[in-house]
Amino acid sequence: MSTTKRIAGAALAAALGVTALSACGGGDAKDKPAGASDAPKSKTVTLVSHDSFVVSEPVLKEFEQQSGYTVKVLKSGDAGAALNQEILTKGSPRGDVFFGVDNTLLSRALDNGIFTPYEAKGLAGVKPEYVLDKEHRVTPIDSGDICVNYDKQYFADKKLAPPQTLDDLVKPEYKNLLVTENAATSSPGLGFLLASVGKYGEEGWKDYWSKLKANGVEVVDGWEQAYNERFSGSAGGKKAKGDRPLVVSYASSPPVEVLYGEPQPAEAPTGVSTGTCFRQIEFAGLLKGAKNEEGGKALVDFLISKKFQEDMPLQMFVNPVTKDASLPELFTKHGVVIEKPESVAPETIAKNREQWVKAWTSLVVK
């Protein structure tokens, strides 16, 4: 995610920063979350994360009060940078739990052995398609889809149907309309590249990008520039006079445009091309050598609890992975469900990521 994930939660939601709310155990044992004991505690459990981790204060405080643990969140840049630091400090981690490794980085994390296996309480409630590590070194926490977004007003004015698939994007009627992020410097940019690999395979993705380049795709460094400067459909893009009505962003972008609209619109001004998507899944894991292993286990359990899973969409603009979590009305009314996103196995990504990005850069940027 990455910062995974999603209309760039850090850019659109208030940052949590380092949280350290103290609370000692209370309530009946039956009310305590998994991992809690009846003994009073005043322990700190540290969550190492990328910069986009956000949780509402009441939800976090409730966990702290019921468990007796004080939670400290240590933010460490984007997901790649955060993971690199944990690999460098393997065995002597900076915290107890790492959150934010996604399926584009998962094999690298597992191959470096930074996690202790732990089968979280409540894992049976997670949708099985998200459980990618059968050894339970990591636990799936959220998912988000990287997709092309379109400016509804532009296509209505032009009386042109918006593209819906990757194949559509290379058609002449969409020439010079798409802006995407650099796959070497941006999580959504990489995700869009992986969507093409998933769709066209090792033999076909380069040919696809050759066609996309010939059709006038614009490449910028990151999501902020693409979405809030070049894209004509976003609030920021309108102010910046962006002239690209297609952008690589997230399936959660339209609900966020509604949430932050001034005034708040009745309908999202942007749509999602549902046949262009790549699914990111984010995981948390108990760090090997954690100083507070029991607290770390309780924290992982909390991250897949219904309370946290239902809090997450409006905090980080991602989707829950548990079967019992409900989406907020903002998502159900203005969002879309991506039925068949593209995917690439984590081990395949790990084996080929560098050479794919290098080939993509030579083909599209240079």
Main pleated-sheet profile = 10 strands, mixed
Annotation, overall tally of beta strands: 10
Shape: globular
Helix content: 25-40%
Order of helices and strands: HEHEHEHEEHEHEHHEHEHHHEHH
Output the number of helix runs: 14
Mean pLDDT: 89
Strand content: 15-25%
Name the poorly predicted regions. 1-42
* Quaternary form: single chain
In whole angstroms, the N-to-C terminal distance is 26 Å
Overall structural class, as computed from helix and strand content, comes to alpha/beta
Computed Rg: 21 Å
Explain this structure to me?
This protein is globular. With 366 residues, the protein is an alpha/beta fold. The model is unreliable at 1-42 (pLDDT under 50). The chain contains 14 helices and ten strands. Strands 1, 2, 3, 4, 5, 6, 7, 8, 9 and 10 form a ten-stranded mixed beta sheet that branches. Helix 6 (187-214) packs across helix 14. 36% of the residues lie in helices and 18% in strands. The two termini are 26 Å apart.
Can you summarize this structure?
Helix content is 36%, strand content 18%.
Key features of this structure:
ten-stranded mixed sheet; 14 helices; alpha/beta; globular; disordered N terminus; 36% helix; 366 residues
